[in-house]
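Reopening closed ticket. The problem is back. First fold of the pair:
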Amino acid sequence: MRNAVKVGALIATTDNAAAIGEKPQDVVAASDTLTAYLTARVTFLEQLAANAMPLHILLANFSGDAAWARYVSGIEQIFDEIGVDCPQIDGSSESNMPTLQSGLSLTMLGAQQNRTIYERDKLIWYTYGLPLVGNEVLAQPDDVAQLQPIFFAWREEIVQQVWPVGSKGLQVEFTRLFGDQQVKSSLDTKKTAGPCAVILLGVHPEKEHLAEKIFARNFEKLRRTAWL
């Protein structure tokens, strides 16, 4: 598992957002709904990376009571996008102390799915999306890896492994996945990918042609060789 934690029989994934939202002193100005959507997106992709589907969502809201409904709306958009009922959302809001900047933390608890497991080296690996962060995400939404095709290809086991790329960038994830293999990509491998704007996808070797039809934009095969 990538950044997921096993809690009993459940898989827990968590992501946070701070100083992003609708408060005057936020570093990045964005709607609370969009902020929650992007935070939930990361958390959901980490569930897929662990071959799990969320059953329950816990929201910690540090932006005040008024932000709660907007945050819930953003979370629900994730599940509307993939055509799945949103799990129950529970949590709490900081209402005693007003904050100058927005903040939320999101945890999903999920159940691992019964899927065929392939060794990483047996899969064909691609990048999907472009490394974007902050205002770039808002300015280039079509270049952010889209959830609907990812979920469809994962559910149909065309994609066997989902591997999100976050703030540490592609090169860190290449090392986690491929060890001492040299990996070549046209993307900037050192740039942060923010809210998982880029996803690494391990494609079933016999279904590569299907993946190429599903992911029509910013879908690039990785070239891997051993270091000399």
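Second fold of the pair, where the issue appears:
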Amino acid sequence: MICFSNTNTALFFSKIDEIPSEIWEDLDCTKNFYFHPNYLNSLEKNHPKINFTYIVLIDNDKKPTAIAHLKIVDFHLNSIKNDLEFLRNIGKKLHIIPDNKPLKLLICGNIFVSGEHGIFIKKNEDKNAILKELAESINHFLNLNKDLKKKIDAFLIKDFVNESLLITDELKDFNYHPFSVEPNMKLELQENWQTFDDYLAAMKTKFRVKAKRALTLSENLKIEDVTLNNIDEKLPKMTALYEKVTSKADFNLASFNLETYKDFKAKLGDNYILKTYWVNDKIVGFMSAAINQKSLDAHFVGIDYQLNREHAIYQRILYDYIEIAISKKLKTINFGRTASEIKSSIGAVPQDLTMYLRHKKSITNKILKLFLQRVQPTPFRQNFPFKLKN
């Protein structure tokens, strides 16, 4: 059993439903999709193997200044592939990484979405002070739970854009080490894109031809909206496609339970978008996305790789994200990590992200710093598909 003891600067909660409504109102954070209690509750409810904890930081008047969510996960080292394998191999040789058991990570951040979705700081608060209080609160949480403290191998605070690093580098004082990870690929929609055809017209000929070819190849795809009425029959097949995609990923912090989509549709309605793609009577793909204020955030996709090239399934999904965002008059699309080159060919540009990692053992942590300095995002060819503006 995990114990909770509040401090003068922090309140701790083991369930989202325990957080009083006044805190949400004071923080004024629920306009942000990732800090709406309905979203957080859905994650918590559908991932029982993950231990969730919520920290609410407070000021001298006991008013909330920030909220952060922690998760404890077992990270299986065998899931590390490709360019990061050297970290696993060297780490095992030097006994930084345990051989026969998963690495138990305490993570501050959203393990299912890339970006700054783990800490919400109230407007006009001192962000540097908040980061220090958060690091101290994480230490307090572990010191209070001695058995848990023994089990935790490392601490990870994720994903910060470059503009935040002057603030988040406060974490270095608590022996966290920064390292770069795969960027979030982001597309800024131009104001004159009223239709998808406007988007195509803004492209250079080479990329417009490529887009139209993909649209032609995908013409025979049947696209269906996933609703509460039909989601039960679709989820098993969607899950199988999702597992095909995750099996190719360099690493995954945790596996997402697609049953969560039921809660998203029930609680978040039209702000959560799910579509499936079919060839005849066979499901060959799906896409998911959240509308978060003025952004469309692409979430998980599923693809039948054997039919992907023939029917341009993945490219069609990417173009559909763009068409949805334009139709809903949004300003940006966050495509997330992975497949950076193909995402750049549709106009997305990389947004660098940094994580902070700390091992619980001080000597191991110093050695870890040397390894993390070698961790670099996989290089890719950045495409520039749009015509130059006059």
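Update: turned out to be a display glitch only; the data is intact. Residues 186-350 form a domain with the Aminopeptidase fold (CATH 3.40.630.30). The first helix runs from residue 21 to 27. Please close again.
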